[in-house]
């Protein structure tokens, strides 16, 4: 993860994909941290923030995406 942050300019845009459970996810690689958001099948958005220099991570649940709101599209901005 530290190497990804050091090479963050290789990832100017968020990365999109699917988990092995077929849930959509977004990964943002920034100079000081890596942010992942998983749109869980249970409707919750799980956000993990990793700070590799400090060996710290945090896990947040930022509401539900199935409650009438749509998942962000690839062109939508992501909260930093």
Poorly predicted ranges: 75-80
Strand line-up in the sheet with most strands: 1-2-3-4-5
Structural class: mainly beta
Proportion in helices: under 10%
Order of helices and strands: HEEEEE
Q: Give the total of beta strands.
A: 5
Describe what this molecule looks like in 3D.
There is one protein chain. With 80 residues, the protein is mainly β. The chain has one domain (2-64). The chain contains 1 helix and 5 strands, in the order αβββββ. It has one helix at residues 2-6, and strands at residues 15-18, 24-29, 34-39, 44-51, 56-64. The longest helix has 5 residues, at 2-6. The model is unreliable at 75-80 (pLDDT under 50).
Topology:
Elements: H1 2-6, E1 15-18, E2 24-29, E3 34-39, E4 44-51, E5 56-64
Antiparallel strand pairs: 1-2, 2-3, 3-4, 4-5
Question: What's this model, at a glance?
Answer:
The protein has 80 residues and is mainly beta.
What descriptive keywords fit this protein?
80 residues, mainly beta, five-stranded antiparallel sheet, 1 helix, 5 strands, globular, disordered C terminus
